[in-house]
Design the sequence.
């Protein structure tokens, strides 16, 4: 039996040294048939190191409560209503700020289709 994929969109803000944030609409995807442990963020126009970035679903969940890093991705809460996802590559660092509510809603929907990551 195939488990349904989850795809939602959230507005993120690319953080840079420019005076204003650059808003970007990010596709948040969870495809348990491909990898039940990973979520994928797809950025229009790309980020350093690629347009799509996959990382552990658990990292996103933990990072909404406290700073956490795994490999080239770091997630941490930023105030009471925002979270930051930071992507490190050989080309540089991309820092994207999201409303925590949007990321939490996405995670709830992923756990509704696949409550516990399983091994194949």
Sequence:
């Amino acid at each position: 039996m195939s488990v349904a994929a989850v795809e939602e969109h959230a507005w993120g803000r690319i953080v840079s040294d420019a005076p204003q944030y650059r808003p970007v609409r990010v596709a948040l995807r969870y495809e348990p048939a491909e990898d039940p442990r990973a979520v994928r963020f797809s950025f229009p126009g790309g980020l350093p190191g690629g347009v799509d970035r996959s990382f552990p679903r658990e990292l996103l969940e933990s990072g909404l409560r406290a700073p956490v890093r795994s490999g080239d991705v770091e997630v941490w809460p930023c105030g009471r209503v925002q979270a930051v996802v930071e992507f490190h590559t050989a080309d540089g660092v991309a820092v994207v700020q999201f409303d925590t509510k949007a990321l939490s809603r996405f995670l709830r929907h992923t756990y509704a289709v696949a409550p516990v990551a399983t091994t194949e």
